[in-house]
Amino acid sequence: MSTPQIILGILAFALVTAVLYTWGLHKSMTQQEDLERILLSKSARKVVNYLKKHESISLEEMGRLCKDVKAGQFWSRQKAAVQNPRLFAPKLAQYMTEQLLVKELPGGRFCLR
């Protein structure tokens, strides 16, 4: 191998290493938002399945239903779980109405669209 080939190989290795480092750094910086999004999505799925069998659901029932939901990413040991269902239920209701999964009824109840 000639000297220019060796230098080119070292530069290519450095470039690949920099790209992988930047990608990993970005993943770790956005991990909390990703875990929250996964947690909301899993909880919304549970609520939709509940609403397929029942007519409507209240915020309190949403909280009780999602009490044990956990979310994680396969490449990380960090997990997210619903710690306080009372605080999580309004976030979930807002997420589900923004995603057009449910609509709000009078009396603070929600039903499928």
In short:
By secondary structure, the protein is α+β, with helices and mostly antiparallel strands. It is built from four helices and five strands.
Explain the overall architecture.
The protein has 113 residues and is α+β, with helices and mostly antiparallel strands. The chain has a single domain, classed as Arc Repressor Mutant, subunit A, CATH 1.10.10. It has a 3-stranded antiparallel beta sheet. Strands 2-3 form a two-stranded antiparallel sheet. A hairpin with a 6-residue loop joins strand 2 and strand 3. It is elongated, with a radius of gyration of 22 Å.
CATH topology title: Arc Repressor Mutant, subunit A
Report the CATH C-level class: Mainly Alpha
Total E-strand runs: 5
What would the principal axes of the Cα set say about the shape? elongated
Distance between the termini: 67 Å
Q: If you compute it from the alpha carbons, what radius of gyration comes out, rounded to the nearest whole angstrom?
A: 22 Å
Strand order of the largest sheet: 1-5-4
**The CATH architecture:** Orthogonal Bundle
Spell out the helices and strands N to C: HHEHEEHEE
Query: Which stretches are low in confidence, meaning pLDDT under 50 for 5 or more residues running?
Result: none
Structural class: alpha+beta
Helical content class? 55-70%
Average pLDDT taken over every residue: 91
Largest sheet: 3 strands, antiparallel
